Each structure stands twice: as C-alpha cells, then as structure tokens.
C-alpha cells in the first residue's frame, strides 16, 4: 500500500484538526483542464471540525464498537469472513479448493500466513505444478487481492496460487521488530525479511523446480522482492513489479509540485508514528478511524453497475479486514522508515544499487521481469522504463512495461479486470 496510504490517511485525520486544501486533480472547467496541487493545511474552527466528522469517518460509532468487540473476541474471524466471500472457500467449487496455512519461518516459532488455492484435480504432480505468488505492499495484507484471487484461473489445473502476508504483516506473526532507525542498517532489515521469505519458499517446496515460480509483488513488497532476486538469483522464473516503490528518487507526487514536508512530519515518519498508531490507540473508535481510508479505497464495489449483494458483502468484509490488520501490533510496517525517506523517496534507490552492470558484481538476477503501473499512479513509471531497458540491454533478460488504464497505485483493485488478464498472460508465457 505504501506511503500514498500514509499520506492520504494522515491528511484525512489531520483534516479534522487543521483542514486541508485540494489534492492534485484535473477537472474539466468550461472545456479547460484545471490542475490543482497540494497546499499546506490551514486551521479551521472547532465547530466545523465536529460537523465534518461524519464525512471524514463514515463508519458509525455503534458499528465501530461492535468491530472492536469482535476483534477482542476473535480477530481471525475478520480474515475468515472476507475469504468466505470467495466461491471456493471453505468448500471447493469451480474445480478449485483453498485453505489457510501458517508456515513457521524462524526459531522463535513465528509464521507466515498464507491463503493457498489449488485445483481439485491437479493435472500433474506437485513437483511439476506452477506457482503464482502474491505479495502485498506496506500496511496491507493478502486479503486486498480478493478480486484477483476470485477470478484468476488455475490454467490447465497445473497452477497453484499462494497469497502471503509478509513477516510482521496481516495475519502473519507480529514479533517485536528488532531494528530502530537510524541505529540499525537497512541491509540488516532487508535480511530479516529475506531470511523469512526464503524459509517460506523452501518449506513450501517451491525451490525444487523454481523455474515454475511466478511472483507478483506490489509497491513496497515489489521493492523487497527485487532486492531478494539480487540475493537469490534463481528462486523464480518471473517477477511482476506492480507499481513498485523504491525504484528511483522521483515520484509522480513530487514531480507535480508537492511541497517539502515540515520538520515535525519528517520526525514522525522517522519514528514510525503512522496512522496505524491512531487506530490502535482509539480502542472502540478504531474501526471508525479506519473507515476514513477504507470506505474510499473500496468504494468501487458500491459504485459498480451491478452493485450486487456480493459487492456489498465484500465491501463490508474488506473494511473489517483492513481494520483488523491495522489494529494489530506494529511489526513489519516499521520497514518503511528504513526503506523510504519522508515523502516516498527511497534511501537506496534500486536504480542506483542492484540495477547496475554485471561487471560491478551488483546485478545478479536471472529471472524475467514485468512492470505494471496504474494510469494515474503516483509511482514514477519512467524509473520502471529505465530499469526495464537496462535489464534488456545490459542484463540480457526479458523485461516489459505495461500501463493499466483507469487505475492508480492500487491498480490490482482499481482495474482488476485488466490486471487479471495481464497476470493470466504472464502465466501463459511460462
């Protein structure tokens, strides 16, 4: 999910204290395209804050209190009720079956949470199966891929789909994050994630025939997996970089005139003070605060032409799922301040580190690459294009760049129909 969430969420909350001017959008006004850019927050009277609260946080207090009580009683139900909106879980259907798995990945007993979809009647043995692995971004979880898991087929019944929660995210274990910025090094933090991801790959039997692995990683997850390839160069056949973070030092947001964040905002960023802290400390109002983001993020389900009972059910389940993962103990999310500086620029851009000439001993990846960005993405597609050209001409590997229309940073959800077709094409090319 990454820093677009952090920025928009903090601004939503800040609006209840300071108010804000318009974010950058383009509107047709008397035939002309008018661009509005962000401006500094301005104070607004308290009575106006109170009047705006229902619009800022649309979840009712009663519903928020119920969500909190449910969370305290059994938090796993939030993941269960979301995944149960899929036709093949918990009971097999459409020649598919699915299960939730927890794979231990360290000596402390911490585990990676996984939703695994397999064919009811596989056409080949497990060793010969092909594997599509979904990896989410900052602050997210495997449940955000709901519309992709719902529709992507298990081609010829010889594919398995794995959607995982990164270490310290979602419904994976939430151990105390052992690093603090800037005391510890970024390389130590990378190693903490990569060691556990590697253990998961090994324990799940995905390294026996690693040429059958296709990884799709979003945002900060894509950043982690790109670095993973420089350490383990032959663990998968292809890596799909979905709106990746950390590629280069320019983001679309900065290119359109964002002002430099104030010093206190930067300080909070480096201390990993995030909107999730608000949710965790709000007790019974945490779900209501979450709705300031989730109701806008998943509103497409309610705006669809069909607007079926299933759409409404999934909208509600996605909100509750988002609340549940935001409200859990902070852990893997603390990668953010190590990987990115305030505003979204990477501290060590991939373009300047791992994507270098092989003779320098840096570029070691053997996999194929695909890059996909939303048409209105805030990540800089030009960075992806530059790296893609490098991969082709200097790295000697296949790479392509695709733009998903009518979508932003969360293109896998915004235009899941286009995105799913793109992923199926990558599967067919395997």
From TrEMBL:
It comes from the Eukaryota. It comes from Zygosaccharomyces mellis. Belongs to the peptidase S33 family. ABHD4/ABHD5 subfamily. PANTHER family: PUMMELIG, ISOFORM A, RE40534P-RELATED. Coiled coil: none annotated. InterPro entries: AB_hydrolase_1, AB_hydrolase_fold. The lineage of its organism: Eukaryota, Fungi, Dikarya, Ascomycota, Saccharomycotina. One of its GO terms (biological process) is cardiolipin acyl-chain remodeling. This is Carboxylic ester hydrolase. Keywords: Hydrolase. GO terms for molecular function: lysophosphatidic acid acyltransferase activity; phospholipase A2 activity. Residues 130-415 form the AB hydrolase-1 domain. The keyword Hydrolase applies. GO terms for cellular component: mitochondrial inner membrane.
């Amino acid at each position: 999910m990454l820093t677009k969430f952090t920025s928009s969420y903090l601004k939503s909350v800040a609006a209840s204290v300071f108010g804000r001017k318009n974010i950058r959008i383009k509107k047709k006004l008397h035939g002309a395209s008018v661009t509005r850019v962000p401006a500094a927050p301005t104070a607004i009277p308290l009575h106006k804050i109170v009047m705006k609260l229902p619009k800022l946080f649309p979840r009712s207090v009663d519903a928020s209190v119920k969500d909190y009580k449910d969370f305290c009683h059994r938090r796993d139900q939030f993941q269960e009720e979301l995944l149960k909106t899929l036709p093949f879980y918990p009971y097999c259907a459409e020649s598919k079956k699915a299960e939730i798995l927890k794979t231990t990945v360290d000596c402390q007993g911490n585990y990676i949470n996984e939703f695994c979809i397999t064919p009811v009647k596989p056409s080949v043995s497990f060793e010969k199966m092909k594997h599509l692995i979904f990896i989410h971004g900052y602050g997210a979880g495997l449940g955000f891929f709901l519309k992709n898991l719902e529709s992507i087929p298990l081609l010829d019944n010889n594919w398995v789909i794995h959607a995982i929660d990164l270490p310290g995210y979602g419904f994976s274990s939430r151990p105390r994050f052992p690093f603090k910025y800037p005391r510890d090094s970024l390389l130590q933090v990378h190693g903490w994630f990569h060691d556990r991801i590697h253990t998961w790959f090994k324990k799940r039997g995905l390294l026996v025939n690693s040429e059958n692995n296709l990884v799709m990683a979003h945002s900060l997850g894509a950043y982690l997996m790109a670095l993973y390839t420089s350490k383990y160069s032959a663990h998968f056949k292809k890596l799909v970089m979905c709106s990746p973070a950390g590629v280069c030092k320019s983001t679309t947001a900065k290119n359109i005139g964002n002002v430099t964040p104030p010093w206190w905002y930067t300080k909070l960023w480096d201390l990993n003070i995030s909107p999730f802290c608000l949710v965790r400390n709000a007790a019974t109002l945490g779900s209501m605060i979450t709705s300031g983001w989730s109701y806008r993020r998943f509103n497409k389900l309610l705006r669809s032409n069909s607007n079926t009972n299933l759409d409404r059910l999934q909208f509600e389940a996605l909100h509750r799922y988002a609340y549940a993962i935001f409200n859990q103990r902070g852990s893997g999310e603390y990668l953010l301040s190590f990987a990115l500086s305030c505003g979204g620029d990477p501290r060590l851009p991939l373009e300047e580190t791992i994507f270098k000439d092989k003779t320098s001993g840096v570029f070691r990846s053997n996999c194929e690459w695909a890059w996909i960005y939303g048409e209105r993405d805030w990540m800089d597609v030009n960075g992806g294009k530059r790296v893609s050209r490098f991969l082709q001409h200097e790295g000697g590997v296949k790479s392509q760049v695709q733009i998903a229309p009518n979508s932003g940073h969360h293109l896998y959800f915004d235009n899941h129909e286009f995105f799913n077709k793109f992923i199926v094409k990558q599967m067919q090319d395997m």
